[in-house]
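tool_log.txt
---
The assistant was asked to compare two proteins side by side. It first ran the structure predictor on the initial sequence, then on the second. Raw inputs and outputs are pasted verbatim so the downstream comparison step can read them without reformatting.
(1)
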Amino acid sequence: MKGQILKALRECSDYLSGEKLSEQLGISRVSIWKHIRSLKKDGYVIGASPRGYRLVSSPDLLLPYEFPDLEQRIHYFPEIGSTMDAARELARKGAGEGTIVIAEAQAHGRGRLSREWLSPKGGIYFTLILRPSISPAYAPRINLMASVAVAATIRKLFGLNAELKWPNDVLIEGRKVCGILAEMDAEMDVVNFVNVGIGINANTSVPQFEKTATSLKDTLGRKISRKEFLSVLLGEIERRQALLMEADLLEEWKKLSGTLNKYVRILSLGEVIVGRAIDIDTTGALIIRKRNGSLKKALAGDCIHLREETPDTDMGAVSRQHSV
């Protein structure tokens, strides 16, 4: 109901009377007043006069009723331990495809390999529950799909040259602005669900001494509308879900990749692979040509971009892209 009240206020250029709101929404004027009071507590500035109500300004909060078409699918928290933990519990209880857990801040956000993902207010942190009809072997493509959607959103809204770092990071000018974490629950050849956690440094500030990360705010020199960003991003993800098993998705990832044709060091399952990243296969695995000319696939792991002239030494590492 609060979403419907906001929609009505936004569509009116002047004051809207409580009586008209009551008639339009089919609830009492007392209920209208209670919802208006609740919206004010959420941070909305709503002017009131004998002529009715007028929306003055809205907070940049990712509240469910800011996304009317998705409101019933969103579980919103001002702060939570981890959206991934909450989404896992919901998925195991049968939450449907497209369920979204959003938090303004996370106390125990995490990235890949159980690393901490600092999640202060101002970022965009959410987990999307997916139930794709695919073989578990192709689940890594979901990471590619999500990272392509994030990069496409950044490019569309801000014209920034966002690039992808295999397997799941989005970079701006070589610095990490977004991390993606996917967790799968599967049996044999059946995927029960894949939860995709996305953390974006949006209106946060990254310390100057942190050379491996950035935020949209720091890059643009201004704050962004997180509501607009998330709305566009969810649309980009939905469109690319339809392409999950298509070659077009892999081609788009390749065009946006900042990893292909670079020397890399992959730390994967206790193995170190060094060479030039030349391609990805149909499952999303990275193909590396080693110095002896042999090819090696990396299914997952930590990817470090190296300076071309010193691919075999630790001194060649540009950065490890820690989470922020």
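(2)
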Amino acid sequence: MKKPFALLLALAPALFSACSDNDPEPQIISSPDPVGTLTSLRTGSITPQNGTPTRGTLALVRDAQNQEFVQLNADFTSDFHTGTVTVYLAKADTRIGTQRAAAGSNVQVVGLVNKNGQQFLRLGGSSTGFSHVVFYCETAAINFGAAPLQ
């Protein structure tokens, strides 16, 4: 009984914090820069989840061509030393895997992030019906952070 428990303790950091370059590739919408004047639709502040340092502010914005984007602001930071984090629009701040299993319409993949600071991620549709932006590590199956949209 002691050996399985010791093995689980030894593997715990890798199981709960590894987000690697080998993450499954979600379908990514191209992210060209927004065009013209931006209109802010909703904003949010990122709360770290599962012991990660993900934090900062973001906005859902619309450009002059009526295209929506998630705008990560200059204060956005996370821990990318092991790869990338997938950004989702979601109906809750709970684990993306659980929401996706309940109904595919609960989440919409936005794109991948692998750097800190300001950046724009173009949406493949509308943000209507989604209440959160969630940062999720596919490999570890945990949320790195979530921002309720207001």
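---
observation on (2): The two ends are 49 Å apart (CA to CA). Residues 4-17 have pLDDT under 50 and may be disordered.
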